[in-house]
Design brief:
By secondary structure, the protein is mainly alpha-helical. It has one domain. 66% of the residues lie in helices and 6% in strands. It is built from 6 helices and 2 strands, in the order H-E-E-H-H-H-H-H. It has a two-stranded antiparallel ribbon. The longest helix has 26 residues. It is rod-shaped, with a radius of gyration of 24 Å.
């Protein structure tokens, strides 16, 4: 029996009844943990940028892409919180003196920083 074009190019097929089905396998992708920022980016891509999402998924680059976004977002978030706290005088001394004021101001800083990271990296 003559080889199919797929077999001539080095692929293999499995016979299932009267049909020849190509043995297609995606290459193994390194498993990386995806944090909250990467999960938000994945959801955004899946809902609003489906072509990019499926291109990354089928090329086995989605997981590494999301891990990279997660790492960048976490670094940006930490740096901005630290800078804003420094600029606004939210220190350990304030925490020791008036913990409720410190908590309120830190929550405000974290909320503003989350919005910045979302706008810069996640939902863009």
């Amino acid at each position: 029996m003559e080889k199919t074009v797929f077999e001539q190019m080095g692929g293999t097929c499995t016979r299932l009844g009267d049909y020849l089905l190509p043995d297609l396998m995606l290459p193994d992708e390194e498993e990386q943990l995806i944090g909250i920022w990467g999960q938000r980016r994945r959801r955004y891509l899946k809902e609003h940028h489906r072509i990019l999402y499926y291109n990354l998924l089928t090329s086995c680059k989605l997981n590494s892409y999301l891990a990279d976004i997660d790492r960048q977002a976490e670094e940006l978030f930490s740096r901005l919180v630290r800078q804003m706290a420094e600029r606004e005088g939210v220190t350990e001394a304030l925490k020791a003196r008036d913990s409720m004021t410190w908590i309120g101001r830190m929550n405000s800083i974290c909320n503003r920083t989350t919005e910045i990271v979302n706008n810069k990296l996640i939902y863009s």
